[in-house]
Amino acid sequence: MQQFSVRGRTIAAYVLPTMPLAALGLPLVVYVQPFYITGLGLDQNAVALVLFAARILDIIVDPIIGWLGDSTRTRWGRRRPWIIASVPPFVAGVFLLFIPPQDATINYFAIWIVVSYLAYSVASISHIAWGAELSTVYHERSRIQGWREFAAVAGFLLVLALPVLLETFQPGVTAHDKLALMGWFICIAMPITAAILVSLVPEPPLDASAEKHKLDVGGAIRLIAGNAALRRLLAADLLQGLAPGITGALFIWMVAFYFELPGQSSTLLFIYFVAGLFFIPLWIKLSYRMTKHRTLCVAMIYALCATPLLLLFPKGDFNILAGAFIIYGVTYGAGGFLLRSMMADVVDIDTLATGRERAGLFYSLLVLTNKLGYAASALIVLVLSQIGFDAKLGMANTPEAIQGLAYVFVGFPMLFLLLTILVMWNFPIDKFKQQEIREAIARKRAQAVPDINAIDPS
């Protein structure tokens, strides 16, 4: 049985902000993007390009956020002040993005996407780096990040349940009403969960020697370029963002136009996430028995096999499709927490090499690659335009265009899942390698501390 040092209630308090953060993530692609296109009439290509451009901005911003967090020294810690500072712009951006005026333009969409993404970057990078620093134990890191992913999926479920409940108790509600309810949930949940985090979760103290170092950006770039494990991890995370990003961006249209159940998209998406939520604890336990990277590959192999099966199920039958999306959702969440747990092990390599503790910088790269994956997936609507599919036409699209939508929904994620397996199969850090690295760090730090008994008191 695994022995862990971080208490369950500490982990519970830590993971809570993941729920509102996640509620901005994939639902933004699943609901906000289609609403601005079909509900407000904005050009689908322009919306996709704005989303992509906002993510490209993160290439510059995210590493700076990570560097600033690592460089922060206050009596309240490194991560806590940044979490607190991120809340006001996060709430403002989400409110105006999810509750737009009917005459909102593409410029309005662009401004509040950028504000929301920047605040999200500050909060998520600070939060995930904080979690990586809670433990130095190989499997305990999977436990912490696994429950963080559990909270993220729970956030998805809560925000997706809101439109269903609204439809149940108030028939005839509009898409604008549903989106507004989601926005209110995020805006209320973020300040509450952030307050619990900063009040109850301790920040581990920095090693004394780490305080003496200033971040050498050039040296960090050289180290990243020479770190094979980091390169693999970032490549896998980019691919991980692409596969579910495409699924999310096309989900509503796929259910409405291909499966011919336009009123059931929210319910089927909810079922998909319930399956993912249920299986996350099982993936955590499996990672205790296997290496993290092999557990990731097993999950990706399962998803690779399950994805094309969706096209074999009959259209228009809700019960059968509900079962199909349960099968399809089994691995949702596995990749996210395993990659974040592995990044903590990669950070150990940097700490051993440099003596510095800069989880913020490394996790900013991980957040960046994931967001770039989702951003690139937003451009999938440009592919739809090339095959003749137009979301505004609905069922008036040709059968060939709708079939093309299905092939894109299935084919592109399968490609990215396969590439993830190839990249991560022989990942170089396992439990024993990580223990060796931590022991070497401990020895190095012990040598840096002077022996007070050897000092001449005169």
Helix/strand layout:
Blueprint: H1 8-15, H2 18-24, H3 26-39, H4 44-71, H5 80-98, H6 106-132, H7 138-169, H8 175-200, H9 217-225, H10 228-258, H11 265-289, H12 292-306, H13 318-328, H14 334-354, H15 359-378, H16 380-386, H17 399-424, H18 431-448
Describe this structure in words.
The protein has 458 residues and is mainly alpha-helical. It has a single domain (17-202, 215-446), classed as Up-down Bundle (Growth Hormone, Chain: A). It has 18 helices and no strands. It has helices at 8-15, 18-24, 26-39, 44-71, 80-98, 106-132, 138-169, 175-200, 217-225, 228-258, 265-289, 292-306, 318-328, 334-354, 359-378, 380-386, 399-424, 431-448. The longest helix is centred in the middle third of the chain and has 32 residues, at 138-169. It is globular. The protein starts with 7 loop residues before the first helix and ends in a 10-residue tail after the last helix.
